[in-house]
Design a protein that fits this description.
Mean pLDDT: 83
Number of strands: 0
Strand content: under 5%
Structural class: mainly alpha
Number of helices: 15
Radius of gyration: 21 Å
Shape: globular
Largest sheet: none
Distance between the termini: 23 Å
Order of helices and strands: HHHHHHHHHHHHHHH
Low-confidence stretches: 1-12, 15-19, 357-361
């Protein structure tokens, strides 16, 4: 990781063309593709599994909840779709979309394509809060609260380290994230060392590797509040993020207060990350890989790329979760699969983006 890469001066900058209205292709075709794509992936995820259900029956079961239809499915099929797979699907989409959008926001704030909630230590801080709650035997509310508090604490540490020299160097902030991540990872290791190996340790280890196996509508509600709230704020500010990407001086000249906007975005990212980590454990690479996919498809304009990133993240984690519960007799933790798939995909994206100058600014 070179200094030039960390402080890439052109990353995410809106070009002159981006200042205008999005093209007709981006404005109409992209949302259409995303809508049909996420629906198709969702139906496939509900149908595929050890107990396979025809897609048309899955669609009829869902429609029957709104418009009564003649029953052509069994009660078992209805229970599998509505009671088991639907909560898991919704939770996966929320977590995937939130992590991806958080990564996109951080990369825009720091103007750096190598930043993600994991790199900045937010995920490690949130995982420490969650592990601490698990070790103390506290409930879901404390798990979410602990993940949020220590996610914020990680951000405060990163910001403080970034100001240890004159100015607020992006390089120092990213390096501060590496230090913070290592610090909280060490605390997590300490707790796993001290945990009871017969009762607490297995649940902590499985939670840390990331999984949606215990998904239910209660966890969907817990994750929905921070992720949807944070996503709504970030998406509502995405045109300001475009201006922020021009640099602090230009943003200030256009009436934007860069420091205040940056802090609001960071708090929202921590809020979303904490909500995601609390219900699914630590799932890496989503916040790093998916924003790159979105930018390569629709370009650097955050008005288009951020909503696209959210939907792509939801689809990406749904596909990964479907693979995790179908490709082997036992369920594979999500963190393992996202790393195995995400690392080579990220290398391919970097090679491709280097040929295309990465950003069409």
């Amino acid at each position: 990781m070179t200094r030039s890469a960390l402080e890439s001066p052109t990353f995410g900058e809106a070009s002159a063309a981006d200042a205008g209205k999005p093209s007709r292709y981006k404005a109409f075709t992209v949302p259409l593709i995303l809508t049909f794509g996420i629906l198709a992936i969702g139906l496939a995820a509900l149908a595929i599994g050890r107990y396979t259900i025809p897609v048309n029956e899955v669609a009829r079961i869902l429609i029957d909840r709104v418009i009564p239809l003649e029953q052509t499915w069994t009660e078992v099929e209805s229970q599998v779709v509505l009671g088991v797979r639907l909560p898991r699907l919704l939770l996966g989409m929320l977590v995937g979309g939130g992590l991806a959008l958080g990564g996109s926001a951080l990369q825009a704030v720091f103007r750096n394509p190598l930043v993600s909630p994991q790199v900045l230590g937010v995920s490690s801080g949130a995982s420490f809060g969650g592990v601490l709650a698990l070790m103390l035997g506290l409930g879901s509310a404390f798990l979410v609260g602990g993940a949020f508090i220590f996610g914020i604490a990680a951000l405060v540490m990163v910001t403080a380290i970034g100001k240890t020299r004159t100015g607020s160097s992006i390089l120092m902030i990213v390096l501060g994230g590496v230090v913070t991540s290592a610090f909280f990872s060490a605390l997590v290791s300490l707790i796993t060392y001290l945990a009871d190996p017969y009762s607490t340790l297995p649940s902590i280890v499985f939670w840390l590797m990331g999984s949606l196996a215990t998904a239910d509508m209660g966890k969907v509600a817990i994750a929905a509040v921070p992720i949807l709230l944070g996503s709504a704020v970030i998406l509502g500010l995405r045109w300001r993020v475009n201006i922020l990407s021009l640099g602090d001086d230009d943003a200030a000249s256009l009436g934007i207060k860069p420091h205040r906007l940056r802090m609001l975005l960071l708090v929202m990212v921590a809020f979303m990350t904490a909500g995601a980590v609390a219900v699914s454990g630590v799932i890496g690479w989503v916040g790093l890989v998916v924003p790159h996919l979105a930018r390569l498809w629709v370009g650097p304009d955050h008005r288009i790329s951020m909503p696209t990133t959210f939907v792509l993240g939801a689809a990406y984690l749904t596909v990964i979760d479907t693979l995790s519960r179908t490709i082997s007799p036992g369920e594979i933790p999500l963190g393992i699969l996202t790393a195995i798939i995400g690392a080579p995909v990220f290398v391919v994206l970097l090679r491709k983006s280097s040929r295309q100058a990465f950003i069409n600014a």
